[in-house]
Amino acid sequence: MKYILASQSPRRKELLGRCKIEFTIEPAKGEEQIIGDSPEEIVQNLAMAKAQEIADQHRDEDVLVIGADTVVVYEEQILGKPQDKEELISMIRSLQGNTHKVYTGVALIHAQSGKVKSFAEETKVRFFPMTEEEIISYEATGDGYDKAGGYGIQSEAAIFIAGIEGDYNNVVGLPIARLYRELQNF
């Protein structure tokens, strides 16, 4: 069976590589639509839309498409990728000194048979309190603009993380331990 990752994220590519499967990358290009009543449902729907877009291009092939999407949730609000400097600073101000949740949804679609499996993983992340100077300095690194919630746990923001409860790789963008088991069962 051939595997396709429906994502252009270098972090997801690296993480999926640890599952010891050969795969190609075909990023989904469709517009993301927020559909669902809970963060778990929303990320699964986003992941499913990405996987379905690519699976539709391989209907007659023995291909398993893997789609994923990650959101950060603080006080019931979904924090996507910041659009500008002010939004990134606002996100980090709200997260600093607090605990928030990171959800990654994963969808698996076998293109030929149409068989589908999806799941969502939750990890709690706690930030240390940060000074205004630290927040401004972090923004200046440019690190958080392409990441949900305005930060990457694996990069510049790592020095502000007080702790996590759950799967670290989930926060990076792909819960590979669970994904590995789901692939075995699929």
Please identify the structural class as seen in this structure: alpha/beta
What overall geometry do the principal axes of the alpha carbons give?
elongated
Order of helices and strands: EHEHEEHEEHEHH
Compute the CA-based radius of gyration.
17 Å
Strand count: 7
Largest sheet: 7 strands, mixed
Query: Termini separation (Å)?
Result: 12 Å
Low-confidence stretches: none
Report the helical percentage. Answer: 25-40%
Number of helices: 6
Q: Proportion of β residues? A: 25-35%
**Average pLDDT taken over every residue:** 95
Describe the structure.
By secondary structure, the protein is an alpha/beta fold. 32% of the residues lie in helices and 27% in strands. The chain contains 6 helices and 7 strands; from the N terminus they run βαβαββαββαβαα. It has helices spanning 10-17, 39-55, 85-95, 132-140, 168-172, 176-185, and strands at residues 2-5, 23-25, 63-74, 77-79, 99-110, 116-127, 161-165. Strands 1, 2, 3, 4, 5, 6 and 7 form a 7-stranded mixed beta sheet that branches. Strand 3 and strand 4 (77-79) form a beta hairpin. The mean pLDDT is 95.
